[in-house]
Amino acid sequence: MGKLKNKIAVITGSGRGIGRATAELFAKEGCKVVAVSRTEKELKELEEKTKNYQGKIYPFKADITLKEEVDKIFDYVENKFKRLDILINNAGITYPGSIFDMDPDKFLYCLKLNIWSAFLCTQRAVRIMAKEGKGKIINVGSVCSHWAGYGSAGHYIASKYGLKGFTEAVMREMQDKGLNISVGMVCPGIVDTTLTNPKGEIRENWLKPETIAEAIFFAVTNPENVNVYDIIIFPNWQKVW
Ligand SMILES: NC(=O)c1ccc[n+]([C@@H]2O[C@H](COP(=O)([O-])OP(=O)(O)OC[C@H]3O[C@@H](n4cnc5c(N)ncnc54)[C@H](OP(=O)(O)O)[C@@H]3O)[C@@H](O)[C@H]2O)c1
Questions:
Q1: Which positions ≥6 away from 199 have C-beta within 8 Å?
Q2: Catalytic residue among 58, 95, 109, 156
Q3: Max Cα–Cα distance, the chain, nearest Å
Q4: 1 inside domain
Q5: What is the number of domains present in the chain?
Q6: What's this model's pTM, rounded to 2 decimal places?
């Protein structure tokens, strides 16, 4: 029997990369996954691939930098399932960029998607989860949530450090309110996805999205009263600090 049988999850950024690997694994383990991204075709492919799995993919096309679209996702969840067990805030972006010539709008967008959208999703999720008094929320951070790693304009580092602060604050509020809503992070090093390897070159030494999916799966399948707070994973060769 799947470890996530009949659980309801929302996973942002499910069309490709880490989010997709996580959505597949969750569906294999019996989960009903509301799979969110902007590219409908990729979500449909995911739905098709997983149609004989124990769980089910519910494709949901939305841009989570728009509050009204986030609201539509969670209105759908509330109407269809009446509860939510798991939220994975995974969708995120980075750009290359030096402080000398970084486009200020790109800096802002990076913060918007990587932090503000996670806030919007988390706010709606905890309101639903609080009715049952339990739930699991995992934010996909980065080794850049812990160490700057490399010099840059700092947009990505600031966003992922910020996401770590957000995670801790919400985790503490859930504790203070006596709720069994676990809030934590999974923080990968370099993973072979379209974000980091858009041309799909061979990257044997990098992490696979499936490895991160397993870590997320571990975090959400612990007992209700257990909070897996932070898993940091990187390839042995990567100097992350
Ligand atoms: N790859 C790495 O080395 C690495 C390392 C550490 C942390 N991470 C983190 O892991 C997470 C996933 O990264 P990834 O490498 O899997 O990225 P990816 O391959 O680029 O996939 C990102 C997913 O997010 C979706 N997305 C992007 N913007 C969106 C928006 N505004 N609304 C809804 N969905 C959106 C994308 O689909 P659409 O474009 O179709 O919307 C796609 O499905 C990110 O938070 C990233 O920072 C990645």
A1: none
A2: 156
A3: 54
A4: no
A5: 1
A6: 0.98
30 Cα–ligand 1 center, Å: 24
Continuous H helices in the chain: 17-28, 40-49, 67-81, 104-111, 117-132, 155-176, 209-220
Say which CATH number the domain at 181 has: 3.40.50.720
pLDDT at 80: 98
d(CA 112, CA 110): 5
H helices of 117-189, where? 117-132, 155-176
CB 40 less than 6 A from any atom of ligand 1: no
Give the model confidence (pLDDT) of 171-191 as tens digits: 999 999 999 999 999 999 999
3-state secondary structure of 186: strand
CA of 177 to the centre of ligand 1 (A): 31
Is 156 tagged catalytic?
yes
- Which residues of the chain have a pLDDT value below 70? none
- Position in ligand 1 atom list of the atom nearest CA 141: 7
Residue 117 inside a domain? The answer is: yes
Cα-to-centroid distance, 13 and ligand 1 (Å): 5
What residues make up the domain containing 153? 8-233
Question: Does residue 241 sit within a domain?
Answer: no
Nearest CA to ligand 1 atom 2: 191
